[in-house]
C-alpha cells in the first residue's frame, strides 16, 4: 500500500533562531552561504534565523542558497541598544518572505547606518522598550537575546527598568542559554523559570526558547559555522513562518518544546476515512495525530462523519435511543451499499486499511480481506451527540463507559470459554438431575413387576418352566453385563470429549512473545495430545472387551433360544389358563426388561452428577475469579479517574452488588407461580444465584425441604412459600435453564460516582445537574490512556468554566500522547486547547464536503475559525470591546 499522506496541521519543527554569518565582524573563519545552509540541514533543522550583529548583509544570499531545499530562512538581526551596564541585545525576526531591505529599514529607523553594519559594538540610542516598539512597528517579532548572559536583560539590567522591559506588552519571547543548568533548575532560577508567570517581580509569562548563537567550540566568544544547531528548540507549526512563530510565543506551553521534552511515545490513531456514496460521497478526510476539530454550519455533515467512523470501526452506540439515531443516519445518509474506508495506525506504527459496506439485511459485512473485528483490535471512545447525558443517567451505562478504558479481551475470552464448557456440561448435568426422579420411578415399577411375576411363577411351577426361567435370568444378566461395558465406553468417550474441549488459557496480546508463557502453552498442548492418545487407546481396549462380551452372549444365545422354543411348545400344549398366565408373564418380563434398560441408563446419568457437579464448581470458581479480576481492574481505574479529577470526583466500584440481571431472570422464570415480586426481590438481594440454584438442586435430589430452610431463613421468607417457589421452578423450568442462572446472572459491579458540587460537598450523579453529570463523565473520558477519543460536541451541557478547567487544560497537554477528534461550536474548547488541525465542512441538502483543512495560524483557516466560533471579526471585535469595558479591566 502506498504511503498515506500526512494530515495537515501542526507539527514540531526543529529551529535555530539565532545564527551568525561572516556578516558579523566577530565571525571566525570563512564560509559560503551554501555552507551555512548545508550545516543547518546536517543538523536536521527545518529553519534558521540569520541574526547578524546590526546588519542584514547575508540575509538575501542565504535565502537564495536555501532555494530548492526544505530549509526555511527567517531574515533577522541582533541589535544592540542602551539600557544596561554594557549594551542590551534584542533580536528582530521577520517573516521568511521578507528581505534584507526590510531589516535595513528597521536599522535605519533606530539609527544604525550602513557604516555600522556588522559591528557588534554599534549601539542604538533607543532603549530596549523603544527598540521593541520599533521592531513591532516593522511587522517583526522582538526577542530578548541570551537574556541570562552578558548583554542580556536579566543579567545586565536591574530593578524597575528590567521589570518594565519584561512587562512590555509587545515583547512575546526571550532566549535563554541555561536550560541545562541543573543547579539553576533546582533553584528555579533559569530564564524559563523566572519568566513562567510565577515570579512576583515580573508577574508575566514570556515564551522562552534556546538557540545556538553558533559559538566557536574554543569558547573564544566568536561565532563559527560549526556552532550552527548546537542548541535548538522545537516549535509546533504548520508552516514555518512569522505567524506560526507568533502563535508559539503566545502559547508556549503547548507550542514550544526543547529536545529533552519532545514527545516520543507512539499511540494508536485514526489516519483517514473516506466514502464512496451518500451525503459525504467522494470525501476523504485525514485526521491529525493530536487534536482535530471539525467545524461547519448545521447540516454540513459533522455528526455524520463521526457516525460513519463508528460504523466502520464496529463501535456503534449501546444506548437504544442513540443507536436508533445512528442507524437512521446510516440508512438515510450513507445508504444501502455505501462503503466507508478507514485506516488506523496501532501503537507500534503499523497501518491497517479496510472497508465496510452498509447492507442492512446482511449485517453490513467487511471486505473479504478483513479477518478481524476492528472493535476488538482498535478500540476508540466514541460519544455521539447527547450520548454522554444518557450514560451519566444510568449506572449500567456508566459501568460500560468505564470498561471502555480497559483491554478486557483476555478476561472476556476466558469467561466466554468457561461459559461454553459450562453450557456443554449443563446438558449432561440436566440429564443427570432428571434421572434422579426417573430412577426412583423406574425402580418402583420394576419392583412392582417383580412381585407380579413372582405370583405368576407360582402358578406356572413346572420343570420345563423352571429351566426356562433360569435361562431367562442368565439372559438378563448377560444383557446387563453388555450394557455395563457399553456404558463404560460411552462414559469414557464423553469424558475424553469434555477434557479435550477445555480451551488453552489465552496469552494476552502484550505477552504474545513471552518465552515462558509460550513454553507453558506448548506443555499444555503436549498434555492434550498425550491425553487424547491414552484415552483413545483405553477406549479401543474397552471396545475390545465389549466385543468379547458380545461374543460370549452370541455363543450362549442359541441355548436360550432352544429353551425358549421348548417352553413355548409346552405352553401351547397346555393351553387354557396356563397359556394366558404365561403370555401375561412374558409381557411383564418384556416390560421389566425395557424398564431395566432405562433404569440402567438413568442410573448411569445419575451417577455422573457428582463428577459433573465437581467440574462445574471448578468452572464456576474460575468464572468468579475472572469477575474478581474485572472488579480489581475497575477499582484501580476509578482510583486513577479520581486522581486525575483534581478533587472533583470520588469513585468506588462496589463489587458484585448489582443483582438486576438475577432479579429479572428469576422474575421471568416464576411467572405463573403466584409468588410475589417482593419475595423474588428478597431472594435476589440476599443470596447469590449459585447458592440459590444449589439449594433447589439439593431439594430436588432428596425431596427434603431442609435444604431450602437455610435459604428461606436468610431471605426472611416462610419455608412453605420457598417450597412453593422451588416446586414451581423444578416442575416448570428446564434444569439447563436453572443451571445457567448460576453463571449467566452473576451479580455485577456497581459504580458509585460522587461529584463535588462545591465546598467538598460530594453528591451522587443521580442528584446533580445534567451539566455536572456530563462534566464528571468527560473528566473520566479525558483521564490518562492512549485510546483515541472521538466526541460530537463535548461542550453540550457544560458551563464555560468547566470547559476550560476540565477539558482545555487536559487536552492541551494530552494531545501529544493521544488522538482527539471533536466537533464543536465552542471557541474555548477549540482555540484555547490549541487545535492541531481544523477541518471545515460545508454542505447543502444533498451533500457535504471538506473545504479547508489546517491550523488556524494561516488563511483561509483562520478566517473560517473566526467565522464559525466567534461569529466573524465584527462580532469578535464587539465582544472584545465590551469585555475590556468591564470591571475586570
In short:
Helix content is 52%, strand content 14%. With 889 residues, the chain is an alpha/beta fold. It has a 9-stranded mixed sheet, sandwiched between helices. It has a 6-stranded mixed sheet with strand order 15-19-20-12-21-22, sandwiched between helices. The protein has a 4-stranded antiparallel sheet with strand order 11-10-13-14, with helices on one face.
Describe this structure in words.
With 889 residues, the protein is α/β, with parallel strands linked by helices. The protein has four domains: 248 residues, TIM Barrel (Alpha-Beta Barrel), CATH 3.20.20.140; 208 residues, Rossmann fold (3-Layer(aba) Sandwich); 215 residues, no CATH class; 87 residues, no CATH class. It is 52% helix and 14% strand. It has a nine-stranded mixed β-sheet, sandwiched between helices. It starts with 10 loop residues before the first strand and ends in a 5-residue tail after the last helix. The mean pLDDT is 88.
Rounded mean pLDDT is: 88
- C-alpha termini separation: 57 Å
Q: Which term fits the overall shape?
A: elongated
Total individual domains = 4
Q: Widest sheet: strand order?
A: 7-6-5-4-3-2-1-8-9
Instruction: Give the fraction of residues assigned to helices.
Output: 40-55%
Strand-pairing-aware structural class: alpha/beta
Amino acid at each position: 500500500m502506498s504511503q498515506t499522506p500526512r494530515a495537515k496541521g501542526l507539527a514540531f519543527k526543529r529551529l535555530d533562531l539565532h545564527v551568525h554569518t561572516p556578516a558579523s565582524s566577530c565571525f571566525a573563519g570563512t564560509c559560503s552561504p551554501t555552507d551555512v545552509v548545508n550545516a543547518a540541514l546536517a543538523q536536521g533543522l527545518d529553519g534558521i534565523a540569520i541574526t547578524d550583529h546590526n546588519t542584514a548583509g547575508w540575509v538575501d544570499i542565504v535565502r537564495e542558497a536555501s532555494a530548492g531545499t526544505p530549509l526555511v530562512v527567517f531574515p533577522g538581526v541582533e541589535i544592540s541598544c542602551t539600557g544596561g551596564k554594557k549594551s542590551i541585545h534584542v533580536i528582530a525576526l521577520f517573516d521568511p518572505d521578507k528581505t534584507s531591505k526590510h531589516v535595513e529599514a528597521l536599522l535605519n529607523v533606530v539609527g544604525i547606518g550602513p557604516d555600522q553594519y556588522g559591528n557588534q559594538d554599534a549601539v542604538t540610542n533607543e532603549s530596549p522598550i523603544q527598540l521593541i516598539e520599533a521592531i513591532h512597528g516593522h511587522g517583526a517579532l522582538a526577542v530578548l537575546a541570551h537574556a541570562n548572559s552578558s548583554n542580556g536583560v536579566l543579567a545586565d539590567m536591574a530593578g524597575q527598568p528590567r521589570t518594565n522591559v519584561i512587562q512590555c506588552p509587545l515583547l512575546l519571547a526571550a532566549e535563554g542559554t541555561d536550560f541545562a543548568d541543573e543547579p539553576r533548575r533546582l533553584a528555579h532560577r533559569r530564564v524559563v523559570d523566572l519568566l513562567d508567570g510565577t515570579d512576583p517581580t515580573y508577574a508575566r509569562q514570556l515564551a522562552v526558547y534556546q538557540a545556538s548563537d553558533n559559538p566557536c567550540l574554543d569558547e573564544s566568544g566568536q561565532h563559527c559555522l560549526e556552532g550552527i544547531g548546537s542548541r535548538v528548540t522545537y516549535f509546533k507549526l504548520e508552516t514555518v513562518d512569522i505567524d506560526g512563530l507568533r502563535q508559539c510565543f503566545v502559547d508556549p506551553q503547548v507550542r514550544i518544546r526543547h529536545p529533552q521534552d519532545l514527545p516520543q511515545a507512539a499511540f494508536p490513531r485514526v489516519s483517514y476515512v473516506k466514502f464512496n456514496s451518500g451525503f459525504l460521497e467522494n470525501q476523504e478526510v485525514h485526521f491529525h495525530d493530536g487534536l482535530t476539530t471539525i467545524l461547519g454550519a448545521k447540516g454540513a455533515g459533522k455528526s455524520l462523519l463521526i457516525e460513519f467512523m463508528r460504523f466502520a470501526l464496529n463501535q456503534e452506540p449501546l444506548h437504544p435511543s442513540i443507536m436508533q439515531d445512528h442507524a437512521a443516519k446510516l440508512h438515510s445518509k450513507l445508504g444501502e451499499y455505501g462503503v466507508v474506508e478507514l485506516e488506523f495506525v496501532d501503537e507500534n506504527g503499523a497501518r491497517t486499511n479496510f472497508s465496510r459496506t452498509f447492507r442492512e439485511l446482511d449485517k453490513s459485512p467487511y471486505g473479504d480481506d478483513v479477518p478481524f473485528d476492528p472493535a476488538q483490535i482498535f478500540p476508540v471512545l466514541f460519544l455521539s451527540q447527547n450520548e454522554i447525558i444518557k450514560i451519566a443517567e444510568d449506572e449500567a451505562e456508566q459501568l460500560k463507559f468505564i470498561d471502555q478504558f480497559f483491554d478486557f479481551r483476555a478476561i472476556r475470552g476466558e469467561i466466554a470459554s468457561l461459559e461454553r464448557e459450562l453450557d456443554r456440561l449443563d446438558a449432561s448435568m440436566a440429564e443427570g438431575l432428571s434421572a434422579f426422579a426417573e430412577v426412583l420411578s423406574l425402580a418402583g415399577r420394576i419392583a412392582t413387576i417383580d412381585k407380579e411375576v413372582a405370583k405368576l411363577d407360582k402358578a406356572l411351577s413346572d420343570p420345563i418352566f423352571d429351566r426356562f426361567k433360569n435361562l431367562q435370568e442368565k439372559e438378563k444378566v448377560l444383557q446387563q453385563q453388555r450394557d455395563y461395558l457399553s456404558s463404560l465406553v460411552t462414559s469414557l468417550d464423553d469424558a475424553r470429549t469434555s477434557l479435550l474441549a477445555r480451551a488453552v488459557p489465552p496469552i494476552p496480546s502484550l505477552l504474545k512473545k513471552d518465552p515462558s508463557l509460550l513454553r507453558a502453552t506448548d506443555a499444555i498442548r503436549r498434555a492434550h495430545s498425550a491425553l487424547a492418545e491414552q484415552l483413545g487407546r483405553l477406549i479401543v481396549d474397552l471396545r475390545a472387551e465389549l466385543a468379547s462380551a458380545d461374543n460370549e452372549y452370541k455363543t450362549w444365545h442359541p441355548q436360550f433360544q432352544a429353551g425358549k422354543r421348548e417352553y413355548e411348545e409346552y405352553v401351547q400344549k397346555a393351553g387354557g389358563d396356563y397359556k394366558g398366565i404365561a403370555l401375561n408373564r412374558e409381557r411383564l418380563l418384556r416390560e421389566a426388561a425395557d424398564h431395566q434398560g432405562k433404569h440402567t441408563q438413568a442410573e448411569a446419568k445419575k451417577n455422573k452428577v457428582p463428577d459433573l457437579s465437581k467440574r462445574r464448581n471448578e468452572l464456576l470458581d474460575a468464572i468468579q475469579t475472572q469477575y474478581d479480576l474485572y472488579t480489581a481492574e475497575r477499582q484501580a481505574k476509578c482510583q486513577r479517574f479520581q486522581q486525575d479529577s483534581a478533587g472533583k470526583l470520588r469513585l468506588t466500584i462496589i463489587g458484585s452488588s448489582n443483582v438486576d440481571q438475577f432479579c429479572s431472570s428469576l422474575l421471568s422464570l416464576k411467572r405463573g407461580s403466584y409468588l410475589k415480586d417482593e419475595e423474588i426481590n428478597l431472594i435476589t438481594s440476599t443470596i447469590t444465584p449459585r447458592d440459590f440454584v444449589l439449594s433447589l438442586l439439593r431439594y430436588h435430589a432428596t425431596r427434603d425441604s431442609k435444604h431450602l430452610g437455610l435459604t428461606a431463613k436468610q431471605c426472611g421468607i416462610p419455608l412453605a412459600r420457598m417450597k412453593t417457589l422451588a416446586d414451581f421452578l423444578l416442575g416448570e423450568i428446564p434444569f439447563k435453564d436453572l443451571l445457567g442462572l448460576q453463571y449467566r446472572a452473576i451479580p455485577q459491579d456497581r459504580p458509585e460516582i460522587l461529584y463535588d458540587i462545591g465546598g467538598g460537598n460530594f453528591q451522587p450523579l443521580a442528584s446533580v445537574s445534567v451539566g455536572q453529570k456530563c462534566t464528571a463523565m468527560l473528566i473520566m473520558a479525558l483521564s490518562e490512556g492512549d485510546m483515541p477519543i472521538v466526541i460530537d460536541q463535548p461542550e453540550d451541557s457544560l458551563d464555560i468554566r468547566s470547559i476550560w478547567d476540565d477539558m482545555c487544560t487536559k487536552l492541551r497537554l494530552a494531545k501529544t500522547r493521544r488522538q482527539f477528534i471533536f466537533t464543536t461550536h465552542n471557541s474555548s474548547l477549540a482555540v484555547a486547547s490549541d487545535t492541531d488541525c481544523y477541518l471545515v465542512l460545508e454542505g447543502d441538502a444533498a451533500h457535504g464536503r471538506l473545504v479547508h483543512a489546517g491550523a488556524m495560524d494561516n488563511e483561509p483557516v483562520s478566517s473560517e475559525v473566526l467565522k464559525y466560533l466567534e461569529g466573524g471579526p465584527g462580532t469578535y471585535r464587539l465582544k472584545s470591546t465590551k469585555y475590556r469595558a468591564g470591571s475586570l479591566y
